[in-house]
Amino acid sequence: DTAVSQTPKYLVTQMGNDKSIKCEQNLGHDTMYWYKQDSKKFLKIMFSYNNKELIINETVPNRFSPKSPDKAHLNLHINSLELGDSAVYFCASSQGLISSGNTIYFGEGSWLTVV
Amino acid sequence: AQSVAQPEDQVNVAEGNPLTVKCTYSVSGNPYLFWYVQYPNRGLQFLLKYITGDNLVKGSYGFEAEFNKSQTSFHLKKPSALVSDSALYFCAVRTTNTDKLIFGTGTRLQVFP
What we know:
The complex is a heterodimer of chains A (115) and B (113).
Chain A: E1 4-7, E2 10-13, E3 19-25, E4 31-37, E5 43-50, E6 53-57, E7 64-70, E8 73-78, E9 87-94, E10 105-106, E11 110-114
Parallel strand pairs in A: 2-11
Antiparallel strand pairs in A: 1-3, 3-8, 4-5, 4-9, 5-6, 7-8, 9-10, 9-11
Chain B: E1 3-5, E2 10-14, E3 19-21, E4 24-26, E5 33-38, E6 44-50, E7 56-58, E8 64-68, E9 73-78, E10 87-94, E11 101-103, E12 107-112
């Protein structure tokens, strides 16, 4: 009964490959996010979707493309992986917008290592 | 620029003693402030938030935080630390007129038996 679940949890891949990370939430939330945590534990938002519509798109390389097929899912596809993409990627969700006082709930993370 | 700062990389405290993890912020308007905890190899868990109302906010696992507008601070506190509280703690603030949360750099709390 995990609230925000991501797969895979661990991913080791070679430079130049294309990979996807999937995320699903069973909380009935309208808003979903992708965050990146680097090796120094610094957390930064990448994307946010509200009701399947992209509302936040930080300065992230075009190689990163989110896709939200429905409100419960937000997948992250990464093309032409580079060494610097190695990080932990967190999916998260909230009932609605943070500006309405909502709380973000995080998944367990996907550890991506590019070799 | 809007920001949130956690001035201590690490806080060490003996079990049973009170703990404080510091957070200061810089945003215009009324801040929305959050605390999260991250255990090793895990996701972030929500502890508490301040949106409006009482400046003292109580949260999960016995933690509380005090919003101080004049000092632009939102320090996390617990009266009696447990060894199991040892983890990485993040303060976050919503940036003005956006729906983004920006996170501090994290403070590692180490509670010694």
